[in-house]
Fold this protein.
Amino acid sequence: MPKPSNTAKITHNLGLATWFGGSLFGQIALNPTVDSISDKSERGRVTNEGWARFNAVELPAIAATLASWRFGGLRDDAEIRAPGLTRLKDVLLGGAAFNGVMSGILGARLASQAASGQVPIQSGLKPSRDTPPEAAASQRWIAFFGTGATTLSALVIAISGVIETQKPKPRGVISKIFTS
C-alpha cells in the first residue's frame, strides 16, 4: 500500500485546524463578546455576519478534511497503525461534520429571520426576551450543534495524534510469524 502523500496530510491538517480553530474562536470569543454591543439587533447582525463569513471557509475545510482522510490514503495508513482508533476517528469525523453542517444551516436560518440578520439576541448563543420564538429555537439548537462540532473536532485532533504515533501492525498470518 502506498504511503499517504504530504499533500493529503497537509490538506487534512489545515482543514481540521481551520474547522476546530474557527469553531473554538466563535464559541469562546465571538459569541460571548457580542453581549457588549448595546443594540440587541446589532448583536444579531454582527454574530450572523461573522458566522456567515466563517462558514464560507468552514464548509470547504470540512470537505477537505473528510476527502483527504478518505481518499488521500490517510485512513488506509491509519487502519494499518491502529484499526480501532481509525474506526473511532471515522465516527468522530462524521459526528463533527454533521454538527458543523447543522450549525451552519441553523445559522443561515436564524439570519434569514430579520433583514440583514438583525435578529435581536442576548449573545451569540443566548436569545434575549426580544428574540422571536422561532429564532430563539434556532439559536438554542445552534448552541447544541456548535458545541458538539467543536468538542468532536477536538477529539478528532486528539485521536489523530495518537494514531500518528502508532507503528504499523503486522497483518496476516505470515507477517505475524516473522514479526513476533
About this structure: The chain has one domain: 7-179.
